[in-house]
């Protein structure tokens, strides 16, 4: 639009000037002095006007480009004075300046935002000019790790800590390299990586320094806490039924000793109870030894086990504690000769975990029932199910129940189901959960 106005006004001036020059030529040829003089004056005026009209636009543009050259985008060009095309030109200049100011403002905001992020991260970040050593960027974590105040050139470190300077700035850290730094008269283990980049004609080196000494100590501490949590959870799960069964047997023995005629002592029940305690104690010892030797965690002592015998031992362990809780526990095997190739102690641990979860689910249910059943599917694979009529598992958390340390129980550890899944995976089997709110839960172990 500006160009069209400029072209129109320029064309008008050229036409007028051409007409005046034509009149001047005819007046000279006809020796008309007055007309020639008038045409000459008007021609000179329009030549000057054409010159001013042309150069003024170029001077305005030259003035704008000069401000761009010196990055002066704060200037404001007058939009309400002068010729119409000059006003429109000024409007365009102001729009360009405003756009560039907005871009610079966004750029500055992004820089401040990035600067704050880099300051908050717990990893040292440092960039400097390879040729001059001038520092382009460094965050507080980097300075804290090398125990140094802020500096503008890496020569500062070279003059005060030459060994540190050599380890950090002179050694090539292609990839990730682990390095021991002498900081505060201590050996500090750090991980350093680097890359180079160019900005216009300058080359820069970016260093990323991670203090892994603190991370290793923290991870080791967390690992021990989790291991102790697992051990405590599983040991308590095994001790609870053993203690309950031992208490029941002790009560029976005392009653028989005080009044042998009324309270006959069933030696078979006593033998079965002691055998259950002995077997579970052996399983507990094996479990503890497994976690004491972590390199054997994937080792299984597989043997053919009758499911009926496995269920009988579980019944002897769990039933005494359920009598006082008014929970009915039932074991059912379709084929009494059904055998599975398992590590009996570990699978027994899984079933104890599932039974304790089921007991917890039915504790506030009238006539709480738990059914443990076993059968073979059409493919000949054994399936053991633990079913209860408890409160069920909410649909929003059922996908999270196998995540280690996830729990909804006030005093839970979140270990039982994740460990059960790990044990089933070691047996090349799987564990599946189907649950419906207020109707109950079915947990299936497929071998």
TrEMBL record:
Q: Which PANTHER family match?
A: C4-DICARBOXYLATE TRANSPORT SENSOR PROTEIN DCTB, SENSOR HISTIDINE KINASE
Q: Which domain of life is it from?
A: Bacteria
**A Pfam family recorded for this sequence:** HATPase_c
InterPro entries tied to this protein: HATPase_C_sf, HATPase_dom, His_kinase_dom, Sig_transdc_His_kin-like_C
Alphabetical keyword list: ATP-binding, Kinase, Membrane, Nucleotide-binding, Transferase, Transmembrane, Transmembrane helix, Two-component regulatory system
For this protein's source organism, the top of the classification is: Bacteria, Pseudomonadati, Bacteroidota, Flavobacteriia, Flavobacteriales
- Which reaction(s) does its UniProt entry say it catalyses? ATP + protein L-histidine = ADP + protein N-phospho-L-histidine
GO BP of this protein:
phosphorelay signal transduction system
Ranges of residues in domain Histidine kinase: 230-447
This chain belongs to the protein called: histidine kinase
Task: Indicate yes or no for the key word Nucleus.
Answer: no
